[in-house]
Amino acid sequence: MSARRLPPLTALRAFEAAARHLSFKHAANELSLTPTAISHQVRQLEEHLGVRLFERGARRVDLTPSGQELFTALRIGFDAMARAVDAVRPGTQPRAMVLSTTMAFASRWLLQRLARFAQAHPDIALHLHTSDEPVDLHAGAAQLAIRYGPASYPGLNCEPLLPSRFAPVSAPALGVNNLEDLRRVPLIGFEWFRRDADTPDWPLWFERAGCAPLPRQLQFSDEVHAIQAAVAGQGVALVNLALVADELQSGMLCQPFGLELAGHGFHVAWPKAHDADAGIAAVRAWLREEANPLSSQATR
């Protein structure tokens, strides 16, 4: 076999931690380094690859499309390495469980909360499986899943986690305040994995707003990139408000229009045959707590 052409592992670890936390400071704490060292490692990796991996702001960093692609692959690889190392260690190990979800939900909601799960449940090693294609829970590839959809899955129990409301959002600096302003800024869209008559996209939004639709100038393959483009001030994106709650609260994004479209909710699903599984019950209870704003604020 030919040798693998990989950048230094230390740089990959620094990037993966920074991408997971969206923070050089938090990555430094995790790896027992300084934020300057993390930044240096990431810069070296960007120079090695010849691409920018982060958009660096005054108070936070966001992944570029190239950074998101690399992060997804590294997260899967490091999780697999961690499971392999755990499997060969002697002694009692935490129970490994796999939670499957979409790439958008993982990166925009779940990843920043996983550290709290590890603190609350040291007896469970929770690993993420991210894919927009639903995983077969009956086959054992994952023990439970967070799915966006109508909450009807054969052989699975299902409980609601988060409702979904879709609305246009933009960076405040764009100065979008009324429908006429939409004519002077790009509209950002993304590809839906599955569509139906009520898919909350721009044509439906304009229809409900009672005006003629405008063409989309920016189209992305997934919602994560659409959100990142909106944060960067590239236009107005119609996205799930649950996935931009932090940006709306901090003022990085604003919601200039009151009209919202209802979408399918996010649900937790698990096999009916494993309804009595204590580990699955623990993950479900933690997810419910995190999804409850009052509960999650009390734990921070």
From TrEMBL:
Domain HTH lysR-type: 7-64
The keyword Transcription appears for this protein: yes
Keywords: DNA-binding, Transcription, Transcription regulation
Domain of life assignment: Bacteria
SUPFAM superfamilies: Periplasmic binding protein-like II, Winged helix' DNA-binding domain
Cited Gene3D superfamilies: Periplasmic binding protein-like II (3.40.190.10), Winged helix-like DNA-binding domain superfamily/Winged helix DNA-binding domain (1.10.10.10)
Protein name: LysR family transcriptional regulator
Species in which this protein is naturally found: Lysobacter arenosi
